[in-house]
Design goal:
Blueprint: H1 2-19, H2 21-24, E1 30-36, E2 53-61, E3 68-69, H3 75-88, E4 93-102, H4 106-112, H5 115-131, E5 136-142, H6 147-171, E6 177-182, H7 195-201, E7 204-207, H8 236-245, E8 253-258, E9 260-266, E10 278-281, E11 288-290, H9 291-300, E12 309-311, E13 316-321, E14 325-329, H10 332-344, E15 349-353, H11 362-377
Parallel strand pairs: 1-2, 1-15, 2-4, 4-5, 5-6, 6-7, 7-8, 8-15
Antiparallel strand pairs: 2-3, 9-10, 9-11, 9-14, 12-13, 13-14
Helix pairs in contact: 5-6, 6-7, 10-11
The structure holds 2-acetamido-2-deoxy-beta-D-glucopyranose (5 copies).
Length: 380
């Protein structure tokens, strides 16, 4: 008996470090969320017991020397983040989120296509994450790239993982997590991501399952985060199928959950299904509204019979105000349905964007609720 346990100790000591953190995390249900340091809540407001991973956003890339920087005004929030959220939940893991530049990839290419630039970036990302106590790194805002850039993008992830593994060995610290976020792809898109390298080198990839149709870009209404939809309408289920078709498997895929919706100005009064002519955003500059704001907006119209309804076909919530403003968003029922979808399809978990928009943690608890029910069902 004693020798058996000593033997297993021996094996644990020797093989645990070699199997590395990125395989360990694959077996956990990921409940992640973005904290934007510029938002109105502070890290101590985050109910971190509802999450397994929290991402602190955004740090940026200096496109002159490819080093990571954090705005001076935000720096103290980043350095205190890990300790603050862990005081409520010591098991939560924290990640430093790096903004890759968004829809225009020119800067990103200039980093990807030169070995010395990639090296500076990788080194700086690891040093910055460690110096502020983060346990992982996230890259968000990298658009799909043309075929000519795929190999370099893949190389970046390969080198990044190698450096992270090497740094963990040198420092005797647990290996940093490495994750990224990716956008929706249509079957017809010639741009793509280096899915094979992503599969091998990242702990997970966050599928940005929102902002498909927005009032600043589209002149007919569309659901920005529908789970399902007819052919030719972007929706999360078809987006995930497309990623899978291009070689990315579900077990490292984390579904994005939006804590925001959009307000559209309707051209024709009362015409409020999808594909109704729209003349731009309503209520805010780009029409985007955080969940908390949407709920208070709804309450302010409560006496005038404005009620939101759950659209079961698309898995979204929607309402119309005065026949001229149409809002689509995710309420508790949509969030729950998406979390169930993630479970059923064998995805790795979910990632919320963004925490400050929740209303008294109602949406965050919706994901948690489902999780506990599932655990009960399987007898844990
Ligand atoms: C930080 O700096 C970047 C780049 O200069 C800027 O785009 C961003 O708005 C700043 N963010 C905050 C929160 O100050
Ligand atoms: C970016 O790097 C250049 C060159 O090292 C430096 O002069 C500049 O101050 C850096 N910018 C920021 C925002 O860190
Ligand atoms: C790298 O990409 C940038 C931006 O697209 C381009 O200007 C530059 O010429 C490329 N460099 C190499 C070595 O290919
Ligand atoms: C780890 O140490 C080796 C040997 O000293 C060195 O070559 C390597 O660059 C180090 N890795 C990192 C990421 O610092
Ligand atoms: C709406 O946008 C489509 C394509 O983006 C364009 O072809 C069409 O002319 C636009 N319609 C109006 C009324 O602006």
């Amino acid at each position: 008996m004693a020798s058996t346990s000593m033997l297993s100790c021996f094996f644990l000591l020797f093989f645990l470090p070699l199997t590395a953190a990125h395989t360990a995390s694959s077996s956990t249900w990921v409940k992640a969320g973005y904290y934007n340091s510029a938002s109105e809540i502070s890290a101590s407001d985050i109910k971190s017991t509802l999450f397994t991973h929290l991402l602190c956003a955004f740090s940026f890339i200096n496109w002159t020397n490819y080093n990571i920087f954090i705005n001076a005004s935000e720096l103290h929030k980043f350095s205190a983040f890990t300790q603050t959220v862990k005081s409520q939940n010591p098991t939560v893991s924290t990640l430093l989120s790096i903004w890759a530049g968004g829809r225009d990839n020119t800067f990103l290419f200039s980093m990807l296509n030169q070995s010395s630039h990639r090296k500076s970036f990788i080194h700086s990302s690891i040093t910055t994450a460690r110096s502020h106590g983060f346990q992982g790194i996230d890259l968000i805002g990298a658009s799909p790239v043309p075929a000519s850039e795929l190999a370099d993008f893949g190389k970046l992830l390969e080198e990044w993982r190698a450096a992270i593994t090497s740094e963990a060995r040198n420092s005797s610290k647990p290996e940093l997590l490495l994750v990224m976020a990716g956008y929706y792809l249509r079957a017809s898109d010639s741009t793509s991501y280096p899915f094979d390298s992503m599969q091998r080198n990242l702990d997970w990839v966050h599928f940005l399952a929102y902002d498909y149709y927005v009032p600043t870009k589209n002149n007919i209404t569309g659901f920005h985060a529908a789970l399902y939809g007819p052919t030719n309408w972007d929706n999360t289920d078809s987006g995930i199928k497309e990623w899978r078709r291009r070689g990315f498997s579900s077990n490292k895929l984390v579904i994005g959950l939006p804590y925001h919706g959009y307000a559209w100005t309707l051209v024709n009064q009362g015409e409020n299904c999808i594909a109704a002519p729209a003349s731009g955003p309503a209520t805010t500059r780009d029409g985007s509204m955080g969940y908390k704001f949407i709920k208070s907006f709804l309450r302010s119209f409560g006496n005038n019979g404005v009620v939101s309804r759950f659209n079961n076909n698309f898995v979204v919530d929607e309402f119309t105000v005065a026949a001229t403003v149409w809002v689509d968003f995710d309420d508790v029922d949509s969030i729950r349905a998406k979390v169930s979808y993630a479970k059923e399809k064998g995805l790795l978990g979910y990632n919320v964007f963004q925490l400050a928009n929740d209303d008294n943690w109602v949406l965050s608890k919706a994901g948690e609720f489902n999780y506990q029910k599932t655990l009960l069902k399987i007898g844990l």
